[in-house]
Structure formats: structure tokens, C-alpha cells
Here is the input.
Amino acid sequence: MMKLSRRGFLAAGAMALATPSFAAEYPRLTIQSRILDVKGKPAKVFGIMGPTGKPGLEMIFGERFALELKNDMTEETAIHWHGLTPPTAQDGVPQLSGTALKAGEARIYDFENNKAGTHWMHSHLGLQEQSLLAAPLIVRETAQPVFDEQEHVVMLHDFTFRDPAEILRELQNGGGAHAMHNMGSMKMDAAMMGMMANDVPYDAMLANDRTLDDPEVLRVEKNGAVRLRIINGCAATNLWIDLGELTGELIAVDGNTVLPFKAKRFPLAIAQRADIRLQVPQGSGAWPILFQSEGSTLRSGIILQSGDGQISKLSDQGVAGDVVDLAMEAQLKSLAKVIAEPVTHSELVELTGGTENYAWGFNNKSMMHNVLFNVRQAERVEVVLRNLTSMAHPMHLHGHYFKVVAIGDKRLDGAVRDTILVPVGEQVTIQFQADNPGNWAFHCHHLYHMNSGMMASIAYAGAA
Ligand SMILES: [Cu+2]
Here is the structure.
């Protein structure tokens, strides 16, 4: 190793700072177009490539979130770090946190990150997310796994060959798969509820960009432990994780640890994440992990394979998934020690609309970034979310985590999350600590609802 005197070292440091390409010291995330093969047909989609050539980013808790984001597409974009709580200016929502990133532009993001877990990054501009402009953002709790287990990230997408703008236009003209919601009130049975759970039909479901015709195969050890970090990156599809013959433990939701919850099937609403730990059986085998769309037969999956396990062909059509409900949510318990501060500010937010011209909104008003209510720093805010519409809404708050404190009238010591599904006719109450001044998006994460008025903000009084 070359030995530098203190003086020499300082000079070298000064030189490094003076070079114009100092930005290259930041790892780079590149937003780009790419061609995907979906069911034998080429599809032009977007992607976010990380410094290692893999999509997205993996970092260790305690590391500063510091990178250069480069837009190599021919259109502008804005990337939101879903699950992190950056200063508001770096949150990636046009109109709320700075300008869009123009074609060819690069920008530095640099902030202290204190959120571990399975997160993701995605476009917050227009309908780009439907074109797969999203990637994993994994903040590992420790550099080395505490448990002897194999980790694997699974990013899920709903895929259509159609132009998303055309889908939105059709919905807003009263057509498409949402039309039956406009037929007035009628008695619905479970099958009809299922049919009405989706208002966008898809051509395929993808798990790590692949369909079940050619699924990803994860080699695992016999009797080994596996931790799946599953991200629902769908634009408009709630789904069920189905472990088939295996049983797993849900250990974290939206990156926040929960008391391990054992099951074979787990609901996963749009934008939510689930960390599931499972044990591979003793003998050789192949175990499909399936992701079944709510109200639709379409599914995706990955295969865990050990030894010389035989992989059999699986159809990408399963049995239409039940309507996603809050049965599991009601049983989740946060492991994080949250101080039970007294509520100092209460709000009732009704989720409304979805009838004429597909106009959605809050408290009977369609909005696009408008302030829904103000908060003050240090307030403990409780928000009652009441769904008066005919569809479920995965509600996402930026810049904060919240605790689920009630479902209907039943109070609970629920999970800490950043996205909660509010099913049809139900009411969910959340609490958050106002500790991150700014103007924060608060919206339904269903891409077409969000772009049709279910997109508000919560603004700190006196903050920029
Ligand atoms: Cu919605």
C-alpha cells in the first residue's frame, strides 16, 4: 500500500473534490427502456438498473442513502423511494417534492436513512408504473443475516400489452371493466364481488419479469431456511401469496417486523411488501410459490427447487382469487416498540367516488395533490379511513409510517405500515407521529384511481 503523509493525503483529497466528475463517486441508478419477452411477444417496458447491473438497490441499515439517479429514457419521470422517509424535497412526487427528472438528466439524492426492510422504488409520474418503472429497494437489517437463511427478492407486476393511457381514457369515459360499477346499487354475491374487485384486465402476471410459462427457479438447500422478500409492484391488482404445500411465517410487512404469523396463504395489497420465512422440506423437491390475482384467474409464481426435484409445468391460470380482506391484518401485531402517545389530532377521511366518469376522491372531492388536511409537528394524528365506494383502496402515506389501530370498531395493537388496504364498506383507523415536516402525498396506490382524483396531500402547517 502506498504510504501518504498527512499533507499528501490532504492534497489528494482536495484534488478529488476539485475534479468535475465527483458525482461519479455516487453509485448510479439508471432509468431505462428495455424489451421484455411476455408470452412469446416483445414488450417495451421501463426499468431501474442498479450499480451492480441488477434492478434496483440493496443496502445495509445505517448506510446513508446516497446515489445518482440518471434518466436514460426519452421522457421525463420522477422516482419515489417507497418505504423510506426522506426529507420532503427528495421524495420524488412532482408538484410536492420538486420537479420531474427530464430525459437525460441526472440528480443526486443524499439523505440519512433510518428505515430497514423490504421496500421499493417506482415512478410517481403519470402511468409509467404500469410500464414496470419500478424496482426493489432492499435495506438489509444487518450486513450478515442473523439467521442462517437464503434471501430472495420477488417483484410482482400486472402486465398489459395495451397503452395504459388508453385504459385510463376508457375507464374515464365510463367504459372498460369498471362499467358494471355504475349500474346502481344491487345485491352482490361473492362471485360478483370478485368480478368487481378488478377494473383493469391484464394479459399476464409477472414475478421477477417472468410468467409461469417460464418461471424463475430458485435453487434451495434441502431442509434450508429461505426468506422471501415479496413486493406487490402491481399497478391495479391485489393478490394472494400461496405457499402451496409449504407453511411460512410472515415476519415483516412493509419493512416493519411483526410477531411471526404462520399461514399458507397471505394477502398482499397493491404496494405492500411481505417478508416470509419458510423451511424447505428434507427430501429433493420442487415447490411453487404462487401469486394469485384477486378476482381473476391470472397468476404468477416462482419455483423453489432442491436436489433433483422435478419441476412440472404450471398454468398461468388458477382459481380466481378471493376478494382480499383484513382477516389477517386484524391478527397482526407489531414488534416495534411504539410509544402509545395520546392522540392530539383526529381526522375522518371518506373514500368516495368511482361512479360517473370514474372520478375518485376523498370527502366527495376529486383531487390531484391538493391538501386534504394540515398537521403540526409533534402531533399524534389519528385518521379514520372510511370506504364508501364499490372498490377497495390501498392507501399509502408518504414520509411516515403509521400504525393500524382499529378495523371497524375493534381497536387493536396492529402492524406498522406505509400502505393499508381499505376494503369495500370497511373502516380502518391509523395513527402516525407528525415528525417529518413537509407536504406529503397521501393517496390510493391503485394507479388508475390515483390518476382519477384519489391523490391528496397532508401538509405541515408552517412548513415549505
Ligand atoms: Cu383506489
Residues 6-18 form the longest helix (13 residues). The mean pLDDT is 91. The chain has three domains: 21-142, 153-160+202-324, 345-460. The longest strand covers residues 28-38.
